[in-house]
Specification:
heterodimer, A: 257 residues, mainly alpha, Cytochrome Bc1 Complex, Chain C, two-stranded antiparallel ribbon, 12 helices, 63% helix, globular, B: 445 residues, 65% helix
């Protein structure tokens, strides 16, 4: 008995994998049904639905990049401290001295790639008309995921705390000042006053809530860090689950009727 | 020593490898042609081209040490001057609009394998020659801009893929044959057919990310300083389209209203597109209106504005050619005029109506409304009169099929999307600043 057979014959192996290796048709079906990760897929699928020229694989790549971002992001969280004192220095050290400092490169390039692959995924879904009934709602979930992907990237942009970061976030968040009714330089904000006392000021408007202050400072860094590492990823994970579930429930990947 | 050398040993060596890569791609291409029994003369032409590329690449790799000697393989100064001379937003949008129209009208021509292959070669050669320019490299070579250059080629590739497949499908549909997608409707097992390609894809992507991370360090500039404002200050690259809209619209429109309209419009898309055809396969002819509208929003407006904002906007948000030095002192005359000034001062020869200093609040409001009535009326007409007018004329069929609510959503989305090019053209043609200018209320349109 070879060592491989010995392992596959052991009680431990059999407790994890409930059936023989997927070498024949029956076990290739069973493997998809019994494996937690594989059961996202159907058991069989039309050839057209897995052709790269049709799907461009962009949804799958986006999900893979999300996982890459999660893994490299957790590793970076062990190292990086989101304070004015340490943020920049920690990134500097990741670049210059830290073993596996390349995690930051992979995280950043993965993030840029993810924005692009989300767009391309939507581009493909549009061009194949896959948002049409019965998949309308899943397209809406997808648009929400697009927004959250952009917000993830935007909040992450601040964390290195260099000139690039602080000014990109300043430019980006200045827009919130002009939100109608909710920004202190937005149309309609002047109407919102009580007895001559302005409700919307630069210390109470949408931008203040976003930044946790009147300018991009330590409170912003903390706020964006929590949004980037905890709050938005939680919501994204939930929406991804719904998105995948609905792909299956709405009839699997689209194709001609 | 020139501190801004157009050519360095490193650049020449890098370009050498690029030419050799292009050569390898073309060798594969020539072999494919020979298998398809192409004519001898075209094969000879491609072989000649491959040989040329190989020689050029080898010269770059062996002679890189002497960049100062007279070097042939650079973008000619005359062409650089020509291209920089064209650098202004009007020409940028005129060209991108013309290319967009050509892309749709000539779709059967440019998706032919040979034509699209020549276009790909031309764009890579253009990029390679441009890399010999110092200022071009400064912009394109910024680490955060590298993915945008890649995105350009990737978006172009997938647009080509869409059009070539839909041309083929439209031909089949017209002939009563099944589409490409319909033909491949036999079922296969997910293990191994899908999981293996997923696995290969994951390994390839991991390799790409690791190599990319090793070759190109992530950018890290000086520590943040709230007193040293960089010029230009740019938002993250994917928001540069919105930042470019700030040239034409106030922040409340460019930064809040228009992005919200884009997102609401995207979410509304499946509910206003009543066309049942074109679900699950590539086609152009069966859904012309929705595809053209979406592509116009995605390619010239979204991607186009990101390109413009990233590569062509320099200090003070001035417009620069791709080979132009980003001069902080470049002056651009700005004398934009509001519609109210056109109306009261230039047409009626009157001062702008203002309320007396001791006027009541209501009188002040009325004075502002009187001052801006032309712009307010024009805006109201745009949003209130045009939808019913279009329903009676060009969108008659849509209105009948969609019903009132769906039609109004569609009409407003189209009008909001059209508002951007309209405002751009008004700015370029008449220096028009705001149609409605009420800075007192932060209400400028």
């Amino acid at each position: 008995m070879s060592i491989g057979e010995y392992i596959r014959d052991s009680q431990i192996w059999k407790s994890v994998f409930r059936h023989p290796a997927p070498h024949d048709r029956r076990n290739r079906i069973v493997v998809v049904l019994t494996n937690f990760f594989l059961h996202l897929h159907p058991v069989s699928i039309k050839k057209q639905g897995i052709a790269l020229s049709y799907t461009w694989c962009m949804g799958g790549i986006t999900f893979f990049l999300f996982l890459v971002e999660a893994i490299t992001g957790v590793l970076l969280m062990f190292y990086y401290r989101p304070t004015l004192e340490w943020a920049y220095n920690d990134i500097l050290a990741l670049r210059d001295v830290t073993t596996l400092g390349i995690m930051r490169e992979i995280h950043r390039w993965g993030a840029h790639s993810m924005v692009i692959t989300v767009w391309l995924h939507m581009y493909r879904v549009f061009l194949t008309g896959s948002y049409k009934p019965p998949r309308e709602f899943n397209w809406v979930v997808g648009v929400l995921l697009l927004v959250l992907t952009l917000l993830l990237s935007f909040t992450g942009y601040l964390l290195p705390w260099d000139q690039l970061a602080i000014w990109a976030i300043t430019v980006g968040s200045n827009m919130a000042r002009a939100t109608p009714f909710l920004g202190h330089e937005g149309p309609g904000a002047q109407i919102l006053n009580l007895g001559g006392y302005d409700l919307i000021t630069n210390a109470s408007d949408a931008r203040f809530i976003l930044l946790g202050g009147r300018f991009v400072g330590e409170a912003t860094l903390n706020r964006f860090y929590i949004l980037h590492c905890v709050a938005i990823p939680l919501v994204v994970s939930l929406l991804i689950a719904i998105h995948f579930w609905r792909v299956r429930k709405d009839g699997g990947i689209s194709g001609p009727l | 020593m020139n501190p801004h050398p157009d050519l360095t040993a490193q650049v020449i060596r890098g370009l050498g490898w690029l030419y050799l890569l292009l050569c390898a791609m073309n060798i594969v291409w020539t072999f494919r042609l020979s298998k398809q029994k192409a004519s001898v003369s075209s094969l000879a032409g491609w072989a000649f081209y491959c040989t040329g590329l190989a020689l050029v690449g080898l010269v770059h790799i062996t002679k890189f040490a002497d960049p100062q000697s007279s070097w042939w393989f650079v973008m000619p100064q005359a062409i650089k001057t020509q291209i920089d001379g064209l650098a202004n937003p009007v020409i940028f949008f005129a060209i991108s609009t013309l290319l967009f129209i050509a892309m749709i009208v000539l779709r059967e021509w440019w998706t032919k394998p040979t034509v699209s292959w020549i276009l790909l070669n031309a764009s890579i050669l253009f990029l390679a020659l441009s890399m010999t320019d110092y200022d071009f490299r400064q912009i394109v070579g910024k680490p955060d801009n590298v993915p945008i250059v890649a995105m350009l080629f990737i978006v172009a590739f997938f647009t080509w893929l869409y059009f070539s497949r839909s041309v083929e499908n439209d031909r089949r549909i017209a002939a009563g044959l099944p589409t490409l997608e319909k033909e491949a409707d036999e079922k296969v097992l997910v293990w191994p057919d899908l999981v293996y390609s997923e696995m290969i894809c994951m390994i390839a992507l991991t390799a790409i990310l690791v190599i990319w991370g090793v070759v190109l360090p992530a950018p890290l500039e000086e520590p943040a300083s709230s007193v040293k404002t960089p010029n230009p200050s740019k938002a993250p690259w994917y928001f540069l389209g919105l930042q470019e809209m700030l040239v034409y619209y106030d922040p409340w429109m460019a930064g809040v209203v228009l992005p919200s309209v884009i997102l609401v419009g995207l979410m509304a898309l499946p509910y206003i597109d009543f066309n049942k055809e074109g679900n699950g396969y590539y086609t152009f002819n069966q859904r012309k209106f929705s595809v053209i509208t979406f592509l116009f929003g995605f390619i010239p407006l979204w991607i186009g504005l990101i390109i413009l904002g990233t590569f062509l906007r320099g200090p003070n948000w001035n417009f620069f050619g791709i080979y132009e030095y980003w001069d902080v002192h470049k002056l651009e005359v700005l004398n934009n005029v509001n519609l109210s000034e056109y109306y009261w001062i230039r047409s009626l020869n009157q001062p702008l109506p203002t309320a007396a200093a001791d006027a009541s609040g209501l009188e002040k409001v009325l004075a502002i409304l009187k001052r801006e009535w032309v712009g307010l009326a024009a805006t109201a007409a745009y949003l209130l009169v045009l939808p019913p007018l279009m329903a009676a004329t060009i969108f008659q069929k849509f209105f009948v099929k969609m019903g009132f609510v769906r039609y109004m959503v569609l009409a407003n989305l189209v009008l909001f999307m059209a508002a951007l090019p309209i405002k751009m053209v008004l700015r370029w043609a008449f220096n028009l600043k705001y149609i409605v200018a009420i800075p007192e209320w932060f209400f400028n349109i």
